Amino acid sequence: MDNLSGRREEFPDVINEIIDKKIRPYSRYLTMFLEDSFIERTSNWIERIFGDLAPKSLKNKFKTLRGFLSRLNLKLKRWDSRNAIL
User: Dihedrals φ, ψ of 12, to 5°?
Assistant: First the structure.
């Protein structure tokens, strides 16, 4: 947060407003897992299930923008084919 505070003038007012309202009040909680080893890195149970159940090859596809966009494109094509009005 200190790094962001020193660079406020580099960001548009909208970004500074988001940082002040949405990130700064919770910044202590966002990094608390670094200080307390009993707190998991993610408390989002859906994210943890996906991380545990998805095969490594699928998880690796989401690590690059190209992989993510190709996966999204396939999902959109599948949705279009299922929901097309004939």
Answer: -65, 160
Check: CB of residue 30 under 8 Å from CB of residue 44.
no
Q: Is 25 exposed, middle or buried (0-12, 13-18, 19+ CB in 10 A)?
A: exposed
Helices (H), the chain: 2-5, 13-18, 27-30, 32-35, 45-53, 56-61, 65-83
pLDDT at 11: 83
Grade residue 48 by pLDDT with cuts at 50, 70 and 90: low
What confidence score (pLDDT) does residue 47 get?
A: 64
Q: Which two tokens stand for residue 7?
A: 């660079």
Contact 42, 48 (CB under 8 A): yes
Global pTM reads 0.37
d(CA 39, CA 32) in angstroms, rounded, equals 8
